[in-house]
Amino acid sequence: MEKKSKYYRIGSLEKGVRIVDLLSRQGTMSLSDIAGELKLDRSVCHRHLLTLRDLGLVSQPGGAGYRLTMGLFEIGMRLVNQLEIKKVVRPFMEKLAATHSETVNLGIKDGSQVVYLDKCESTHLLRADLAVGTRIPMHCTALGKVILAFRPESERRAFCAAGGFKAYTERTITSPKAFALELEGIREQGFAVDDEEHYLGLRCVAAPLVDYTGFANYSLSIAAPGSRLSPGRLTEIGVDLKRTCERVSAILGEIRT
């Protein structure tokens, strides 16, 4: 039987979103490259790009190629700024940054990735500096691992069973079995550690933010160059971070979103 198309699906809108997604990953591209990558007719692709340009979402600097403008960033930041979580957590982040003199990050689960929602930067010249909006796979960052550790058991099992954990450094956990054990350990101690698992020379520790659902969708981390985060200091910060996140979680437990 022939599969029927969804009656509400707008093909032109879908093509435009695919173009935006491609440019977000590849940067500046020519019309030919965009059309070829997405297997679109060149003239159709050109009309979509001109429409996106007129909407202020795409620019063509010097006529050499197309790239995204800051328009999408502004739209995205409006959404981020509407999140109640930022208003609740920000004072706690500032206190943590002042106490430990390192960068504090707020992350949110998005599929199999964690997205950086907010940060309080360290005053050190040499510091962990990942931009707000950065996406990193959950399996190789403390922010992501601790969220996953405090998700439903069925979700944790499905994540581990899916496997395919990419190695970003020699320290990245790539074995599903080893990762499942890692999650158990995180649940027991209440915080997670990223020991140079995504970037060599960068360590961080994270604790979960549990909301009214009883599960974690967000987490806080403290990150710094490995030279300043010894195993002992990681544990010390992790204990303090856990206590702070428990206080924030108590507040989040009263908020229905």
Would you mind describing this structure in some detail?
This protein has 257 residues and is α+β, with helices and mostly antiparallel strands. Helix content is 47%, strand content 18%. It has two domains: 11-74, Winged helix-like DNA-binding domain superfamily/Winged helix DNA-binding domain (Arc Repressor Mutant, subunit A), CATH 1.10.10.10; 83-252, Beta-Lactamase, CATH 3.30.450. Strand 1 (58-59) and strand 2 (67-68) form a beta hairpin.
Describe the structure concisely.
This protein has 257 residues and is of the alpha+beta class. The chain contains nine helices and eight strands. It has two domains: 64 residues, Winged helix-like DNA-binding domain superfamily/Winged helix DNA-binding domain (Arc Repressor Mutant, subunit A, Orthogonal Bundle); 170 residues, 2-Layer Sandwich (Beta-Lactamase), CATH 3.30.450.
